[in-house]
Amino acid sequence: MILDTSAITAIVMREPGYEVLLERMGNSNLAVGTATLTETAIVLSARLKIDARPLLSRFLSEASITIVPFGESHYAAAVVRHWEWDWEGAEAAFRKAIEINPNYARARAWYAYHLSAIERPDEARVQMDRALALDPYRPGVRTFNAGLLCDVRQYAECIEEYKAALRIEPDYPMAQMNLAWAYQGNGNYDEALEQVRQWWFPGDQELDEALDRGYAEGGFRSAMLRYAETLAARPELAERLPIALAITFAWAGDKDRTLDWFEVAYQAHAPNLVGNLMLTVRPELHDEPRFHDLRRRVGLPQTPQ
User: Fold this and answer.
1) Which among 106, 110, 123, 155 would be 20 to 30 A from 94, CA to CA?
2) What are phi and psi of 218, to 5 degrees?
3) DSSP class of residue 153?
4) SS3 of 27, please?
């Protein structure tokens, strides 16, 4: 039995259902991948507010869990190279991880995300369908699939897939935060507004008031403009969230400030910049030379303007 981060965390934290996991583990040879181990240590350290590595080591020893690579070193390298915009290096590492472990659903889902970001949607769909067949109950896999659907503007299907992920894990952050994007793309502006309010900066009175004031002045676009301007005026947030600002200004219809914040994101080497520069995701910027220059600088395919 190959353990993932959620299973180990559930047992260590005594989350609901951990007894069932322990029972299943008692009848299996147990293994965990090296990258999963690193991820689990980070999650437990954050939740327990201590360095959880000694605790995790004792747990692995007491449960006789073997640490094995399972292609995870290549998977971890692939993710890092993707964030570094090393497209060829990332692809080679993803392929190697999958060659070592063809049933590695998380690597296939991430490879699909990578392929979609560099605008190879058909290949991305093949990898994602395989990931879903291998592990349909992992919220991260379902969330990545939702992202692929948004990338090709299948917003209604995207909404349903985010909801599927949330049925598995109701507070899964990436699904909750990105659901606003799907609602906006599908024209469900009231739902998008409420999702932003509840999940982007919940309980922030200044931002909530900006949304309300903007909506009263001119509906969704005006609400997003007020929200973006208020966020931009708070450097403690703006400096670490240039992508969020670019997206919000885009939803407000402000092309110049969208591109300004994408440039800030480029200079900061923001990890999720590339997916936001896709032709399908940003059709409103196709006539902007600055948009195509950004695409060129991160190594995305060039198309006639």
Assistant:
1) 155
2) -170, 25
3) T
4) coil
Residue 260 near residue 290 (C-beta atoms within 8 A): no
Tokens 């890092």 -> residue: 80
Helix axes 87-100, 105-117, angle to 10 degrees: 160
Q: What percent of the chain has pLDDT over 90?
A: 59
Q: How many C-beta neighbours within 10 Å does residue 36 have?
A: 23
Question: How far, in Å, CA of 49 to CA of 72, rounded?
Answer: 26
For residues 22 and 103, give the distance between their C-alpha atoms in angstroms, rounded to a whole number. 23
Residue 88's SS3 state is helix
CB atoms within 10 A of CB 152: 17
> Sign of the C-alpha dihedral, residues 89, 92, 97, 98?
positive
> Which residue type is seen at 230?
T
User: How far apart are the two ends of the chain, measured CA to CA in Å?
Assistant: 51
- Give mean pLDDT, residues 272-291: 92
CA–CA gap between residue 105 and residue 101 (Å, rounded): 9
Kindly report which listed range (33-42, 84-93, 264-273, 278-287) carries the lowest average pLDDT score.
Answer: 33-42
> What residue type is 43 in one-letter code?
V
pLDDT in tens, 55-76: 888 888 888 877 655 566 678 7
- Which of 275, 230, 286, 259 lies closest to 85 in space, CA to CA? 275
- Residue type present at position 240: R
